[in-house]
Amino acid sequence: MQTVYELARGPLVWVSALIFVCGITVRALQFLFVTSRKERAFCPARPADEAPPAAMGDEKKINMIVRFQNTLLGRNPVMAIVTVVFHSALFIAPLLALGHSLLIYESWGISLPRLPDRLIDVLTIILLACAFFFLMRRLVIPRVRSISGVQDYLVLFLTACPFLTGFFAYHQWFAYKTALTLHMLAGETMLIAIPFSKIGHLVFFFFVRGLMGGEYGFWRGNRTWSQ
Amino acid sequence: MPEHKRGPVDEGKIRELLGRKKGRMKLCLTACASCGLCAESCFLFMSHDKDPRYMPSYKMVHSLGRLYRKRGKVSRGQLEEMKELVFKNCALCGRCYCPFGIDIPNVIAFARAILRSQGIYGMYPHSVGGPEAERRDGDTPQGE
Does the predicted TM-score (pTM) go above 0.80? Predict the structure, then answer.
């Protein structure tokens, strides 16, 4: 066990970080290679005197309600909120946990901001509850179950595992050293899996929504899937 | 109207077509997180009692996704199953919304091209040789 612990705390950290960084870089470059720039259509601005009058009062409120109802938050509010909460906890908890900050400080002398342990605990429990929600959603709702494969369940397990084992390790439940080793191995496995599995949506989401032209884009929108 | 071919599947041709757009299509299929949020954006899904077979991601994964997973080694029966998904269950209207911005109609259109390369075409009810037209004309249905 000591050997596995030393391995997980030492070389495997570097290996997983290297694979993670190289992997997401390759995925980002792959995205740029398979898409191409598109010519932006020239749309002259409509003269001000030809524009329709701005909606006022009740009409404006109705327009806002209709527009909101066509968003993800309007159509699937529970899923939208759980997704945002889950992904926020996924980033905040590992980056701002006291234990991780201390390790980084002891290794490299870099002092990172940190959150109180109790808050990290709460975030972990919230994340695990969200992961359970995703699992139930995948098992119960027919349309989600119909497209779920082994990889989808495995990815969910891989994502929740570091947080579950970290919770056990912090509270020193079961064998502390074993829980700690499993926590490190689970985190490293997740990092390695990111470029090669569906967890890669970490990269795809920002690249596709940011760069692809479409009505739901939020940045440049000057690339297209067609060539 | 082209007739359905009944000969063996040309796996080489399928593999050649799959290879042409492999990078792009596999990226689309990998980016799909199987979230199911595209379902309610499809009018066919909403009007067919929320049948999962009309869900955009289902159509994509069980047609082109299946062809890539099997590396083109599919039987004619399996291609006929995909025919329904890509020709009947999808209108390529482009209304489908994907949180990741995957161009689902692009993927399904490519699947259609692969099926057409094997002589499998969409038979619409009222087209010549389709079931409605033949019932109207009193002929026995062919090719379905």
Answer: yes
